[in-house]
Every structure is written in structure tokens, then in C-alpha cells.
Amino acid sequence: MQVTELPAEGLKRQFKIVVPAGDLAAQVDSRLADMAKTAQMPGFRQGKVPVGLLKKQYGQALFGEALEQAVNTSTAKAIEDRGLKPALQPRIDLKQLEEGKDVEFEVAIEVLPEIGKLDFSEVALERLKAVVPDSDVEEAVNRIAKANREQKPVEPPRPAQKGDALKIDFVGSVDGVEFPGGSAQDYILEIGSGSFIPGFEDQLVGAEVGKVVEVKVTFPADYGNAELAGKDAVFKCTIKEVRELVDRPVDDELAKANNFENLDTMRKAVADRIGQDYTRISRSMIKRQLLDKLAEAHKFAVPEGLVEGEFNAIWQRIEEAKKSGQKLEDDEEKMRKEYRDIAERRVRLGLLLADVGRSNGIDVTPEELNQAVVREAMRYPGQERQVMEFYAKNTELKEQLRAPIFEDKTVDFILELAKVGERSVTPEELVKAAREAEEDKPAEEGLAKEATAN
After folding, report:
1. Is the pLDDT of residue 137 over 50?
2. How many domains does the structure of the chain reveal?
3. Could you tell me if 234 and 266 lie in one domain?
């Protein structure tokens, strides 16, 4: 095998490789000799078929196998001998392919950049910290109490009013024709909840038990069912019962009804949950700060192939958004430039985080991967077992959960080394700051995905 390095720029590397015809012929002859030991053909005993006859029948296929193996082996050796780390699969271009002659081909690859040793001790960041106010806890507890209100028939009977819950049968029709999904029996509807089409609930104010009320509404233009969107409809509603919602006291009994030992325990759990929400927002913001600092401080070249792949993935989502009717900027050329810059930033940060993780022994344990599967399953209430079984049977899909875990662990590692100061803010200030940061710059997602695959 002869390898000649060709001129290339930046992170690109290119080689011309020549594999002697004799090497391929020897490999084909070796395979034919092995086949001859057990081959069977009409008119010949097993193991007695002439090699020439086998070559005539299988020689072309065996040459193809030998060629593929030679290309793969010689390419891998050329890369290994030079200590290169490919960013993507090598591109092979066969220049000369003829049985009996030397095989000549060119290999083009892009390599991962050398990032070098990184020092994060001077990276200055600010973590916003919001304390959960007692008023937020009480508001949340009151919402739990509201969700647990009891319904009691109105005594003595009276017309329905806002805040009541009605037990109704209804049948909906458009142009006098009933439509699928437009009817129900014994449905409980709270007037003023806003759970039905705008204007529906208002027309039930004043309704009385035993009466039929015709509710006339217009489906919104953006209604989920395209066949009903923008159309006028009539719902015949039979009022079967008017119920008033009775507030439930905020006490230990309410807590027990929601699987807590007592009211104090429930208040603490509510405060912890709200606190976790604030912590999650705060962490998202400091991660964004860190990525901005890293992107600003490290401007190394990145493989064009990785950038192109990331850009294509982003642009595909843009095209899907266009098809769904989402209004986007008219200047497509400007958009392409902006999203290509985003793609390059994501790839650069992904390579940097992957390098930090690898060089510091950061890894994702099987337990962490299994916990990620459990979290994913919990997103589908009632289908948890099916989701977990699905991931168990699809290891490649399960492996896709590895990259975000690796990324978060690497970010946490860097945060431990950086100079992180804390500033106390109100919850309102925290949410406002997070919203402004989100509007200012698109979120980074799956930065380490491409890099950790190599």
C-alpha cells in the first residue's frame, strides 16, 4: 500500500492511496482456496471443484469483497498512522478500478480541531437566586384547595350562574348535521372555566334544570379540526343538574386528601416544588451565560461537514414551520446566514464541551441512562411500561439520551471551576431575566450530540 498526502487546507486532509493489484489478487486466491475445500458443483465431489471454475463463477464477487476490505483497511491505517481524529466518515473517490491493475483512490476527511488545555478559573458568572415567598406557597395551596372543591346540588333550585358546575347532555350540529365528537352525556361543565369554545359557557348563565338551551357559537379560525374551523354551530344542551362549588378549608384534611401527612408537610412540598422550578430557571440562565463566555473566548476552526449537518437540521425545522403556516422573515438569504452562524456556534461549543468531558473522564453511567429513560416514560402517564419496554428494545434510541446527560455533567464540571457569584432576586425578576435572555438568543440544544458520537 502506498499513501501520498495531497494538499488540503484547514481541518481537511486528503490522501491518494494505491493498493497493488498483487495484494488484491492474493486475497482473492486465498478466498478461492478456502472455498475449494468445501465447494459443491454438479459433476464434482465436495471439495474437488477446480479453482478455475470457482473463479469463473465467483471471482467478480470476491474481487468486490477484497476491494472493499482493502479500501477500508488502508484508509483506517492511513488515519491511524497519522494520529488523526476524523469528525465525519471519510469520503472515498475511486480513481482507478480495473481487475489486474493497481487500485487507486483518494480519501478526503475533516479532522477534529486541537482545542488544547482550557482554564476556566477566570470565567466569571452570576447565578440569580430567588427565594420562594410565603405568598407564592399560599397561592399554590389555595389552588389545590380550589381544585378539590366539592360540588353540591343547588338547594333550593335556582338559575345557573357563573361559577356553578352544570351536569348537561349536549348535541352539536353544523348546518343541521351532527358532527363526530360534538355530543356527550352527563358532562360536568364549570361556567367561567373557559374550557369550551368562546361564548359557549356565557350562554348557559340563567339556565334551569330540565330546560333545553340552544347555544350558538362560531368555531375559531385556527380550531384544531379543519372541518369545523370558522364554522357556525348549534349545541342543544339539556340541563340535568345545577351544582354549586363549595370551597374546601385549607387544613390537614385537605393535605391528607392529596396524599400528605398534614398541612405543614404539604406546604413544604409545595415550596420545594416551586423552589425547584426557580432553580431550574436559574441553572438554565447560568448555563447560557457560560456558553456565551465560551463561544466568545474560543474561536477555533470547526469542521465544515459538521456545520453543514447542523445547519441542514435547523433549516429542515424552518421549512416545516413554513409549511405549518408560521410567519417567518421574508429575507431568506439573511435567515440562512443567521442560522448558519448559529449552527457553527453550536458545533464549536459541542466540540469544546466534548473535549472537556473526555479529557476529564466525564462519562454517563448506566444508572444515569436508565434514570433518563424513567423520566422520559413519566412524560406519558398511563403508558410508562410501554415506553420503557420500547427503549429497552431500541438501544440506539436509548443512546440518544446520553448526549444531553453528558453535556449537563460537563457544564456542571466547568461551573465548579469558574468564578460564580450569586445575586438574590425576586421571582418576578428571575422570570423576567429568563424571558429576556430567551428572546435575545436562541437556546442551545444538544451541543455535544455530534462531538460525543466520535
Report:
1. yes
2. 3
3. no
What average pLDDT does this structure show over 114-142? 92
Residue at which a domain ends, from 204, 228, 246: 246
Residue 449 in this model has a pLDDT that exceeds 50: no
The model's pTM is: 0.72
What's the CATH code of the domain at 74?
A: 3.30.70.1050
Give the pLDDT confidence score for residue 453 in this predicted structure.
41
Q: What is the pLDDT of residue 450?
A: 39
Is residue 129 a part of any domain in this protein? no
Same domain, 233 and 273: no
Pair (228, 157) in one structural domain: yes
CATH number of the domain residue 238 falls in: 3.10.50.40
Domain with 13, as residue range(s), is: 2-110
3-state secondary structure the chain: CEEEEECCCCCEEEEEEEECHHHHHHHHHHHHHHHHCCCCECCECCCCCCHHHHHHHHHHHHHHHHHHHHHHHHHHHHHHHCCCCECCCCEEEEEECCCCCCEEEEEEEEECCCCCCCCCCCCEEEEEEECCCHHHHHHHHHHHHHHCCEEEECCCCCCCCCCCEEEEEEEEEECCEEEEEEEEEEEEEECCCCCCCCCCHHHHCCCCCCCEEEEEEECCCCCCCCCCCCCEEEEEEEEEEEEEEECCCCCHHHHHHCCCCCHHHHHHHHHHHHHHHHHHHHHHHHHHHHHHHHHHHCCCCCCHHHHHHHHHHHHHHHHHHHHCCCCCCCCHHHHHHHHHHHHHHHHHHHHHHHHHHHHCCCCCCHHHHHHHHHHHHCCCCCCHHHHHHHHHHCHHHHHCCHHHHHHHHHHHHHHHHCEEEEEEECHHHHHHHHHHHHHHCCCCCCCCHHHHCC
Residue 117 within a domain? no
